[in-house]
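User: I'm new to structure prediction. If I give you an amino acid sequence, what do you actually give back? Let's try with this one:
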Amino acid sequence: MEREEPAAGLPLAGVRVIEMTHMVMGPTCGMILAQLGAEVIKVEPPSGDKTRSLGGMGTAFFPLFNRGKRSVVLDFEKAEDRETMHRLLATADVFLENFRDGQLEKQGLGADELRRRHPHLIVAGHKGFLSGPYEHRPALDEVVQMMSGLAAMTGTREKPQRVGSSANDIMGGMFGVIAILAALYQKRAGKRDGADIRIGLFENCLFLVAQHMVEYEMTGNKPRSMPEREHAWPIYDIFDAGGGERIFIGVVTEGHWQSFCREFGLAEFLDDASLRTTTDRILARSRIIPRVAEVIRQWNVAELSQKLDALNICFSPINRPEDLFADPHVLRPGGLVNNVTADGKPFRVPALPIEWNGSNIGEGLKVAPLGADTAAVRAEIDNEDPTSKAAGRRA
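Assistant: Good question. You get back a string of structure tokens that encode the predicted 3D arrangement of the chain. For your 395 residues, that looks like this:
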């Protein structure tokens, strides 16, 4: 695969990342670094990353999380390939891995060996758990959602429900990026040595449920799951609209309450002395919501969207992922970027959720065929000064 030069002006241009990861968490970290301009070289075994061949719900894993990377095949059964890996790391700024503790030691890439041979290197290990009693355990997104209480908050204690995406894996990769950027900033400030970073999937999920943990810590009340929660606003619900469609509406301010009632002919609520405050209305939800539902059924979602948008009231149709390919905001210029799979097929993906100097990031990224860059990268490291990284000249 032909080497792609990073787009001009991207902040991580000139940073080299060597990635040995699989599944979602580690590859997400590398994918974001690549979109920010880093050169990411994915090192794969001769058989390739196992997620290359996943089907079903895993079909998107490899192309989505490995866009914009170069692919190098190394066989660590061979001493010369293990040495090639070290030569490659000598030219790199960052090493990403997500293997169980102790596994990389068998391949000559343990923490002590890396620190001895590559003191400049930022090593980011994406693990199931941070250091502690569980550090030896493997983990999956679903495992940590069950352990952390997130599944019980999304569903109920009796019927826990995982979040409907690889939310923790993806967010774990994002925390990896945050830590790596902090380490790169330290080096820019003059720190010559690298950093040893560990990112925990379980602790990432704890971060997500911290609001519920702190609620219990501060009040002594056990947090109620999302389906069972007490409502903080009088109207914050999903309603049936005309034509069999559904819509979520959230009326969360006094001004919204006033304008919503006027727009939808609910003057009876405005004239009711028992509904003067938000607390009054929350306590009266049992009679407010059926009346609102009766009114909402008179319009379809398109009509409701126009009305609510004009009132600046929060709302949303109840979409499925496939519906978003027809959403006008998703289809705005730059909202979706066009990328290419390893076998040359185009696919669209949401752009990285930031704008950089007014532009979206990620257009035109390609997924490298297995080993497409092996020969080119070997030639490059043959021509690079292996002492430049140790001297800190790339940092």
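You can read the tokens as a compact description of the fold. Here is one thing that stands out. The radius of gyration is 26 Å.
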